[in-house]
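Figure 3 (text version): structure tokens given as input.
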């Protein structure tokens, strides 16, 4: 029996092969256009501590940001570095809020910086707004971090109303509103996601990445911030790194302005759509008695399996049937018991881009059989 792994949220090998030529052309253009200037620490008019200057302008234009890009946009070595720098800008032990469940690496960073993390439960629309207000209304929560579309690990798409209402709450209670848009442009059903209005809330920011859209190896991310936060982050960044990866940022700038990036995003939508469809169809077929979320894009979905008791026993049983699964413990260690009680069972994350449609179908069928067998044994 071939083992099927739903563990790693990585691009497919076919997608990386397809983008290789685009990346090669971008690097070639960057070195021809800027040469040794990209290989130096900083070059006036070309690069500074906060990134490759033309890319900052390109990102500001792409995301509709008004004002001087050098005062609003910072480029990073990945989206996680952007969040890490924000965390580092606050005193250790600060109180922050995150979704429960949330991106595991972001949670690990918050814990490493010794911040006190409050978990905000999720609803069908996004975050539980009543719980968010209850948590931040005291005025001592420094930031609220969330993944607004195709959320890791649940695959949840927040509604525009939920995104905007959370923004208003954060502004009211002086809490930095950090929206991670790593999966924002990875929608496969033909519709388009919408971004929050950053100009309507001076305490809101976006952090994003080209890791999932272009390639993990290029390792480039960005943040779009209020000017006051750029002023606060800049010395933190300068004291943490001397400079980001200018050649990669110049490559990405060219890929975007040449139209190659949008062309590749269209390719990804067509490439991943059959895998997403296989996931949606097979979840309904084999776990039809559960409220299974409909996936519209991104890399993940999450399932709650009530009535099976111990999650580790289910992982072992699934592995015996040739399936590897990720449990909730890395996505919400401090909140797992309460969440499992609310959902009457454990949570499991499923990834799909690196699997073929037939592998997804076979893997979900095995999960369904394992679940039914364990439920029968428990009852």
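Below: residues designed for each position.
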């Amino acid at each position: 029996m071939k083992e099927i792994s739903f563990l790693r949220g990585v691009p497919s090998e076919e997608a990386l092969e397809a983008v290789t030529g685009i990346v090669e052309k971008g690097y070639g253009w960057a070195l021809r256009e800027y040469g040794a200037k990209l290989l130096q620490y900083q070059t006036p008019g070309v690069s500074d501590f906060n990134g490759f200057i033309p890319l900052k302008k390109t990102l500001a234009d792409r995301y509709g940001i008004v004002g001087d890009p050098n005062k609003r946009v910072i480029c990073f070595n990945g989206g996680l570095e952007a969040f890490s720098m924000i965390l580092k800008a606050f005193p250790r032990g600060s109180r922050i809020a995150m979704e429960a469940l949330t991106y595991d690496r972001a949670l690990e960073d918050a814990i490493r910086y010794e911040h006190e993390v409050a978990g905000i439960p999720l609803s069908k629309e996004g975050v539980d707004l009543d719980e968010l207000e209850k948590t931040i209304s005291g005025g001592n929560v420094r930031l609220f971090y969330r993944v607004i579309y195709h959320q890791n690990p649940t695959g949840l798409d927040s509604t525009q109303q939920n995104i905007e209402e959370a923004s208003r709450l954060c502004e009211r209670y002086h809490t930095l509103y950090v929206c991670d848009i790593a999966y924002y442009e990875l929608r496969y059903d033909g519709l388009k996601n919408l971004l929050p209005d950053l100009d309507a809330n001076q305490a809101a920011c976006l952090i994003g990445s080209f890791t999932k859209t272009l390639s993990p190896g290029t390792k480039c991310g960005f943040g779009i911030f209020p000017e006051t936060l750029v002023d606060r982050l800049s010395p933190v960044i300068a004291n943490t790194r001397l400079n980001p990866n200018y050649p990669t940022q110049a490559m990405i700038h060219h890929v975007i302005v040449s139209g190659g990036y949008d062309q590749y995003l269209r390719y990804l939508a067509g490439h991943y759509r059959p895998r997403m469809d296989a996931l949606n169809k097979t979840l309904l077929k084999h776990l039809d008695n559960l409220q299974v979320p409909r996936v519209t894009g991104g890399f993940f979905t999450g399932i709650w399996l009530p009535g099976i008791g111990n999650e580790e026993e289910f992982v072992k049983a699934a592995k015996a049937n040739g399936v590897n699964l990720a449990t909730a413990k890395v996505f919400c260690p401090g909140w797992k018991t309460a969440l499992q009680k609310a959902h009457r069972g454990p949570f499991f994350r499923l990834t799909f881009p690196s699997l073929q449609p037939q592998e997804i179908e076979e893997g979900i069928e095995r999960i369904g059989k394992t679940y039914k067998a364990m439920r029968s044994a428990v009852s």
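The two ends are 29 Å apart (CA to CA).
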